Each structure stands twice: as C-alpha cells, then as structure tokens.
Amino acid sequence: MYKKYNIINYIYRDRWIPRPHSFMIQSPPVLGENALVKRLITPSGSWDIPLIRSSFSREEVDAILSIPIRQLAGDSIIWHFGTDGNYTVKSGYKLGHSIWTINAPSGSSNSGWWNTIWQIKVPPKVKSFLWKACKNWLPTAFNLAGRGVPTEMLCLGCSKRPETTSHALWYCETLKRIRFSCSFTAGPKWRDDVEFKDLFLFYKHVLCVEDVELLCIVWWRIWFMRNRGMHSISGHCLDEVVSWASSYLEDFKSARLVDTSCLVSSSCSNELVTKWTLSPVDTFKVNVDAAIQADKQLVGVGLIVRQSNGLVLVASAQCFTACFSPLVAEAVAILRGLQCAVSCGFYPVVLDSDAKWVVDLINSGNETQAEIGAIVEDILVISKQFNIPISFVPRAANMAAHVLANNGLRSCTDQVWYEEVPHWLESVCCLDSSE
Ligand SMILES: [Zn+2]
Predict the structure, then answer these.
(1) Taking Cα atoms as reference points, which of 350, 281, 344, 289 lies closest to residue 314?
(2) CATH 3.30.420.10 is the classification of domain 274-433
C-alpha cells in the first residue's frame, strides 16, 4: 500500500503525497521538473525540513512531513538501522555492542566477568562502577591520557606511578593501609599494570561471597574518595574505608530483605499493574512513549532501557519535526524502542507502551491501510525476528518514558544518557524501582 511512495518518485509528476484527490504536488516546480523525492531527504535519512518549507505550500509541507520516511524506503528495514541518524542510538552502539558481546552465550570469553558482576549482591550503582572499572572506562589519569586528553599520567596520590585503574583502586601506596586492613586480600604480588578486570576476577575466584561484596564496596568507596581529592589529604579517612564499607553493606542487605518481602507479597496479589515492574532476571525492559505538539509540528519520543534489577542502561529523549497523529507518534516510539534494543543488542528484551490502541493493533496481526500501517508492519518484522513481546501498560507504569518524551519535546533536541541519568529522570526511576 505504501509502495506508491518511493524515494525515486518524481516530486512534481508522481502521485506520492498523502492528500485527497490528486496525491500530487501543486506548488510550482522550484526544484526542477525532474527533481526526485530523495532530493528532499538529508544524508542522515530524515526530511530536509528547511528545503521542504521553502519549496512547498503549507498544506503540502504538512502532507510530506506526515509521511514517515520508512514508507519511502520500500520494504527493507535496512534504512532505519543504517542511515537515519535521528533515531538509531548511534553513539550507544558501541556501548550496546559491548553489552551484547559480553552477554553473549557461552563461547564469549567475556561473558564470565559480566555475569559475575551482575550476580554480586551490591547496589546497582556499585555494579555499574565495577563494570566501568573492568572496561577501563573510569577516567583515571592514565585512561584519560590514553584517550588523548592532555593530562598528567601520574597518580595524584603518590606522584610516582601512572594512575591506571588497578593503581587508583588498589595498588597506590597511599592505599597500603586499606589493603592490609582487608585481611582477605593477601593476593598475588601483582603490580599496578595488571588489568583491573583480572584483579577483580582473581579475587572473585578466591574469596568467599561476602568478602567479594565487601571488596567491591571498598573499591567503590576508594574511587569516591579519590574523586573528592582525599587520596593525599587524610590518612584517617582512608583508614575508615573498610569499616564504612562493611556497615554500608549491612544496611544494603537489610534494606534488601525488606524489599524482597514486598516483592513477594505484591507479585502474589492480583492487582492491576499501577507502576513500573522489574523484568524477569537477566532480561531487559524497554519503555517507550510519545508526545506531540501539533502547532509546532513536533514529535517527542522517550525511550528507556533497564536491566532486570532496575538499573538504567540507556535513556533517550528525542525530538523531530513531523505532523503525526498521536497514534502514529506512539507507533513510531515503539519502533524506535525496538530499534534501540536491537541495535544495542539488549536481549532477551520486552517492550512496554501505554498506547493501548496501538499495542492492540500490533498484537492483533490485522493489516491496516491507514498511515500507521507501514509502521506497524516494521514493528512486526522486528518484534518477530528478534522475538520481542510488546505489551500495554498504564501510564503510571510508563512514567520514565513519558517524562522523557515530554523532555524531548521541550528541549527540541535529541539526548541520550548511559547509566548516569539526569536528576529529574533518576527520581522517576527510583520511584519505579521501589516497592
Ligand atoms: Zn598512586
């Protein structure tokens, strides 16, 4: 049905715009008689809005912008994944790819340490920290210099050795007392040029579960104090790291006990879902939502991907120009959520939207000739190919995506966050993850 649109259509000769009667452009051919529709599309794969606005009548502009570019690209979904920079989470790909790689089933040498981190019973932010440390992503002096940031490579604490991750978290001589107060860490006589990941895996292997948990908190605390510039200031503070970490861990565990009992009782009740729920262990959940501002021809899309423990992996607030109906906008949000999940490699994954009509349409399998049909078709291709269930949830269970969509609309730009989310989003996510 949408194949009547094609990027190799002639702008002025073909019937390609969705408007009654002629389906043809009536404005004078300022772009040349033989201009093709693809002339109106930017290299990144979105409508060239300034060009369109300057070349057509207001009514035609609305009609053109109401066509999702997908419809112009024919059957292939390659278009979306490949070139439309508007909504592939481009910079997230690397991150996503690494998540995918390290989550890959057996055969990947990395899967071990990834799973190892996620199984440790410490707060998500500590896991996230450990992950970065293992990936060498902490902005230590050595790592920064390696990324071309003009900076001193030496450790500020001891001024003697390059500040590698292992050095900053463990081997700096200013941390000697901490190493000694962790009686369990009479480990290998490694030096600070050892990869932190190897150090971590070694201790994970030789220590008991409780000691690993404590050690993870200690590392996290050391990094915190290093960032506060406390390395050299006060040996006294450093002395307290281990005792601080063990009481922190105790608090976390007792809070967790309460949490777990709440979870059990709530999952037994048959109440309607009124808030966001954690996805099953070892799965991801994408929440999406759309918002529109019709008078400005703006569409906001919010999407957020969370781990089964509630940790935010990717959040995105997007904004683009189009004259979509609310339902089409919601369908586009779902499509983008799927594309983000697939391109970042989050699997297995489920997707939640609060657009009941759209979700029902998708799950009914009914074909529709309406505007929304082509998008639903794309959604079905991806959700079937990657086995991603799409479910309806009430707005109250979709607040983070809702807030993101509105933020996208307000800020008129595309924003993406990885793990570290802005405060306004964090509070919504905390509410979601609490019981
Ligand atoms: Zn040092």
Answers:
(1) 344
(2) yes
